[in-house]
Amino acid sequence: MQLTRLDTPAAAATAAAATAAAARAAPPSAISPVRRRLMAASCALLSAGGARSHAADVTGVVNDLVQNVSVDSALAYYHEDGRIQAVEPIVNVAKTFANGDALNLDFTFDSLSGSSPNGALPSHGIQTFSSPSGKPQHRYTTAPGELPADPNYSDTRVAVAANWSMPLTRVTQMSVGAKVSGEDDFYSVTLNASLAHDFNDKNTTVSGGVYNEFDSIKPIGGAPQAGSDYAAVLKTGDKTKDGVGVLLGVTQVLTREWLSEFNLSVDRFHGYLNDPYKFTSVLDSTGATTGYRYESRPDQRTRKSAYWENRVAIAQESAALSLRYMTDDWGVRSDTAQLHVRFNMADGGRYIEPTVRYYRQTAADFYTPWIVGTAAGAGGYESSDERLGAFHALTYGIKYAQKVDNLGPFASSEFNVRLEYYEQIRNNPSTALSSLQGLDLYPGLKAVLVQFGWRF
Fold first, then answer.
1. Following DSSP, what letter does each residue of 240-292 receive, concatenated?
2. Share of residues in the chain with pLDDT > 70 (%)
3. What domains, with CATH codes, occur in the chain?
4. What is the pLDDT of residue 379?
5. Is the pLDDT at 362 greater than 80, yes or no?
6. Can you tell me the distance from the alpha carbon of 376 to that of 295, in angstroms, rounded to the nearest whole number?
7. Axis crossing angle, helix 9-25 with helix 33-66, rounded to the nearest 10
8. How many other C-beta atoms can be found within 10 angstroms of the C-beta atom of residue 292?
């Protein structure tokens, strides 16, 4: 007699089906205890075989999903001296598929709190203000000689971005992407697309990209009427702005140790470009504060920039030097230079990367630290926002990274820590107004950044 094997799912299914058919054909009394036990054993084997098959299918799907996947995560802490502090976790997930397609996902969360300058000048007297909510418990005072800043500032931001790239031919690649972000009073959606083409034996890459951004601004307490008296509390509804940008670039392999990249970009924003929480001190002829006026900016801004980066490898070390120049129709001009140098340790599993960055900008045409009487700014616009003023800044940083092999399911991982120190010096001129003498009208800014990262 031929015996049927019950150690495979297919055989178990056949045996169980046959036993069940026999059971249905015979009356209950005719089913012997032996046959009952055989039926139970067959069903148990069928169930176990099905579970093993399902588990194998799930494992196979999971393995396919995680294959060629890299994760780059970081947790950053930023702290300004006497001002804002922020905590920011970031996760980037990238996957490359067998056909050459690639998916990149970014997740960012920001939590900010602290004191935010409101744009007013220090004074020899006490100054009283209200936070944007206008609630009595959110009123705050600034002591004589101190820079007015809202101590109730807080905000959170969540951003999710996705980018899909695909090869159109062996030397041409297209990418499309989107980003959505939301804050307590600001929502943004950005769409982008780019095209890159390699030639000259893939030593030269020419690329071009466009993006379109749509923003919705919902200021807490309402958007103030531009240029209105702070005490009048003239509010308007929600606001919007949109922007479009174009980037053209070329990347060239010059030697085996030298790579150069050059980009040109233009973008234009239109709509509500004011900061709804900034206002300017109104002074009399001696410099004494008589009131405040909400800022007023143009409703469009066009920026043009050029970026050049060179990366070189020297023995076991490498370096990257980048230069950037930006100009806009608000009168702001900026220069940026940044240098990274990586020193690899002898064991090849660790490296140290110091960096230094220099930034300088001129003031916007309508930037004014204060208003005397009823004077209007350039073109009828005015803002005391220090981000639109003239200043220069230096950043010093260092990064340490340690590679770790065979950590659990990861063949290779990298842990790193980065520390940066930032100092900003404002370049505003002095004043002869008597009531402003002895005050630090343009305090600089100092900040530190600590970031822990894990890449696998």
1. EEEEEEEEEEEEEEEETTEEEEEEEEEEEEEE--S-TT-EEEEE-TTS-EEEE
2. 83
3. 9-60 (no CATH), 75-455 (2.40.170)
4. 75
5. yes
6. 11
7. 150
8. 22
DSSP secondary structure string for all residues of 325-356: EEEETTS-EEEEEEEEEEEE-TTSSEEEEEEE
Both structure tokens of 359: 């930034």
The tens digit of pLDDT for each residue in 59-79 reads: 555 555 667 899 999 999 999
pLDDT tens digit string along 404-417? 887 766 667 999 99
Cα(367)–Cα(233) distance, integer angstroms: 23
Show the tokens assigned to 455.
């890449």
The predicted structure's pLDDT at residue 67: 74
C-alpha pair distances (Å), 58 with each of 49, 51, 52, 53, 103: 14, 10, 10, 9, 22
Q: What is the DSSP track for 162-193? A: EEEEEESSSSEEEEEEEEEEEESSEEEEEEEE
Q: What is the C-alpha to C-alpha distance for residues 236 and 255, in angstroms, rounded to an integer? A: 59
Q: Which residue carries 């790193």 as its tokens?
A: 416
Q: How far apart are the first and last CA of the chain?
A: 58
Q: Structure tokens of 416?
A: 């790193």
Q: Note the pLDDT tens digit of each residue in 122-151.
A: 999 999 999 886 555 678 999 999 999 999
Cα(452)–Cα(89) distance, rounded to whole angstroms? 9
